[in-house]
Amino acid sequence: MNNREMASSSLKGAESRPEATEHAFKSRDFPYVVRLSQECVELSLKAALRFVGIEPPKWHDVGIVLKKNM
């Protein structure tokens, strides 16, 4: 699998989170809402990094890598 395919896969994963988040919000499961929201952001940022050819780190917060490659 190449970087663009991996980026596309990550974006598909991120796109599935808002619907689940809305359901969790309606169920008043607020900790899960936060978790799903964080996952959506993380997957989106990692997809952006992969799209430009940067392998994202294996940890959750990719902010350092984003700043370093601006």
Report on the architecture of this protein:
- The chain is mainly α and 70 residues long.
- The protein has one domain (3-68).
- 74% of the residues lie in helices and 0% in strands.
- The protein contains three helices and no strands.
- It has helices at residues 3-26, 30-51, 63-68.
- α1 (3-26) packs antiparallel against α2 (30-51).
- The two termini are 25 Å apart.
- The mean pLDDT is 90.
Report the biggest beta sheet as strand number plus sense, adding barrel if it closes.
Answer: none
> Average pLDDT across residues?
90
Low-confidence stretches: none
Q: Which overall shape is indicated by the principal axes computed on the Cα atoms? A: elongated
Helix content: over 70%
Number of helices: 3
Give the SSE order as H and E letters: HHH
Instruction: Please provide the count of β strands.
Output: 0
What proportion of the residues form beta strands (DSSP E)? under 5%
Broad structural category: mainly alpha
What is the radius of gyration computed over CA atoms, rounded to a whole number of angstroms? Answer: 13 Å
Number of domains: 1
How many angstroms does the end-to-end distance come to? 25 Å
Question: Helices and strands in order, then pairings?
Answer:
Blueprint: H1 3-26, H2 30-51, H3 63-68
Helix pairs in contact: 1-2
What descriptors fit this protein?
70 residues, elongated, 74% helix, single chain, mainly alpha
Summarize the structure.
The chain is an all-alpha fold and 70 residues long. The chain has helices at 3-26, 30-51, 63-68. It is 74% helix and 0% strand.
